[in-house]
Amino acid sequence: MHARASAKLTKLAGRFKCEVFLTRNSRRVNAKSIMGVMMLAAGLGSTVELETDGVDEEHATEAITELINDKFGEGQ
């Protein structure tokens, strides 16, 4: 995932009170950390697991899933 997409994801994740994690190939990172998200090296076609835990976890899951499915608003 490149810097712009990582920034969009971490900014969105930061809006929620719940914990937000991404996992790829057994590497689990805090999705509110841009460095962590970039270190996943999740390029196009990668499979990433989203995990949320907390008071607004359902809203976070929906919003982040929508961002990912929208290809981070970049249409690629």
From TrEMBL:
Q: Which domain of life is it from?
A: Bacteria
PROSITE patterns attached to this UniProt entry: PTS_HPR_DOM (PS51350), PTS_HPR_SER (PS00589)
Keyword Chloroplast applies: no
Query: What are the HPr domain coordinates in residue numbering?
Result: 1-75
Provide a GO biological process annotation. Answer: phosphoenolpyruvate-dependent sugar phosphotransferase system
Q: Which GO terms describe its cellular component?
A: cytoplasm
The family annotation for this protein states: Belongs to the HPr family.
- The name of this protein is Phosphocarrier protein, nitrogen regulation associated
Query: What's the source species for this entry?
Result: Vitreoscilla filiformis
